[in-house]
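FAQ: What does a multi-protein file look like?

Like this. Sequence, then C-alpha cells, then the next protein.
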Amino acid sequence: MKIAVIPARGGSKRIPRKNIKEFCGKPMIAYSIEAALQSGCFDKIIVSTDDLEIAEVAKSYGAEVPFMRPMELSDDYSGTIPVIRHAIEWLIKQGFDPELICCLYATAPFVTAEYLQQGFQQLKSTNAAYAFTVTSYAFPIQRAIKLNPELGVEMFDRNNFNTRSQDLEEAWHDAGQFYWGRVDAWLTEKIIFGADSTPVILPRHRVQDIDTSEDWDRAEWLFKALQG
C-alpha cells in the first residue's frame, strides 16, 4: 500500500492554528490533502493530529483521521520521523501492509500532484530509501556572513571572499514539502539527508517556508501571483 501521512499537531506557537488557518481562501492543510488526492498515488491519506478541530477540517477535505496522535509525540520537541513511524506501526497493527509512505507537510500550499507523482516514480525506479523535495539556494552559501555580538560582520569562510560566485559549487536545501520513503527506512529511522535519498528538484518560486507572519504574507502574494 502507498500511504500519505500528513503530520498536523495543534500546538503551533509562531503562527497559532497554522495548520487550519485560512490561506488564500482555504485552510492551509486543505492544499496538501487536495494535492494528495489529485495525484492518484495513494491508497490512503491519513492526517496524524492531536487536535479535534484539525481532525474535523481534515476529514471535510477528504482525508482520514483514524487515530489521534499521542501526547508524547505532540509537543514542540517531537520529530517528524517518530510521528511517521507511529502511523506506520498503527497501520500494521490494524492489518494493513504499507510499502511506501509519503510524509506530506500540512503547511505546503505550493505542493502539486505532479511533483508528488515525480517523487513516487523516482523512488520506485531507484534503490533509494527516500525521495524528497529540494531547491537551490539563491545566494552562494560559501560567501555567507554572520553578525558578531558587537554588530560587526564576519564571513563564515574568508577564503571565499575573492572567489567568483560562478566558481562556487551550487548548494541545495530541503524544500519542506514531502518525503516519500520505504517503510523499512521510516521504521529504522534512517536519516533522510543522506546518500540513500534521491532529490525531487523544485524551482525556487514553488518553495516558501511559512514560520512567521512575514513568511505568511509573502507566501500569499506568491501563491496569488502563480494562480494569475
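And here is the next protein:
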Amino acid sequence: MPHVVGEDTSGAAPARGPLRRAIESDLWYSFTRSPVTVVSAAVTLVMILSAAFAPLVAPHNPFDPATISILDSFYPPAWMEGGNPRFLLGTDDQGRDILSTILYGMRISLAVGFASVLFAMVIGVTLGLVAGYIGGAVDSVIMRIADVQLTFPAILIALLINGVARAMAGPQSYDQVVLVVLVLSIGLSFWVQYARTVRGSVLVEANKEYVLAARLIGLRPWTIMFKHVLPNVMGPVLVIATINLALAIITEATLSFLGVGVPPTEPSLGTLIRIGNDFLFSGEWWITIFPGITLAILALAVNLLGDWLRDALNPKLR
C-alpha cells in the first residue's frame, strides 16, 4: 500500500539496533542459560582487566628496584603468623609482593598468549584457504607439512624454535627479543589446526553457488578466498582460537618453567612458578602455589568458554 501523507505510522515496528539483535540472538540465549559459562566469562574478564590495569590495581611495583627491599623477603601470607599486612599473599626471595608479581606476570602471559594465537591463526587460515581453494600440488605440499608437524608435540616444536633463536641471537641479545621468540615458537606450533579446519570448510564452500557466481563474474581467486569464503569459515576458527589461547598460555608457562622463557627480572606466571619451586620444600610454599593456582584458574576459565562456544556454534551439539 502506498504511503499517504499525514498517515499515522507510529504502529510500525522500530528497527532493531546491533545491541538488541545481539541480546535476542541464539548465542546470547545459550550464554545466559549456562551458569558455568557466565562464571567463566566473568573470571576471564576480571583476570584480563586486572592484568591490563596492573599498574593501577597492584599494591606494589615488583619490578621497580627503588621500592623493593631484601629485608622484606620470605614474608608469609598476611593471615599467617609472621605475615605482613602490606603483602597480602606474602613475598618472594627478593622481597617482591606475590600479588603484584602475579598481576604483572599475567600481563606477559596473556600478551604472549593472544599474540601467538593471532600469529598462528593468520598463518593457518591463510594456508588453509590456499590449500582448499587452489588444491593440487599446493594442497598436497601444505597438508604433508602439516601431517609431519602433527607427529611432534607442540612443546617440542616450540623448544626447537626457541633453541635455534637463542643460538642465533646469542645470550646477551636473547633477552631483548625473548617475547618475539616466544610468540613465533608458540604460533608456529599451533597453525596446523587452523589450516586443516579451514581447508575442510573451504572444500565444502568452494562448490556453492556464491563462489561459482564470483568466478563467473571474473573475480580474482584471492578476492574470492578472503572476501567471500573466509567469512563463512570463521566459526570453527574462533572456537579453535579460544581453546588455543589457554594452550598458548600453558605452553608459555611451560617454556618459562623450563628456563627458556622470559627472564626472572620481568617474569610471567611460568617464571614465577619456577622461581617458587626452588623454595617449595623449604617451607615458602606461597611463592609457587599462588601463581600456579592463578594459571590453573585462567586456563580452566578460557577452556570452558571455548567448550561453550564450540557447542553454541554447532547446532548438532545443542
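Q: Is there any per-entry metadata?
A: Some entries carry free-text notes. For the entry above: The first helix runs from residue 18 to 23.
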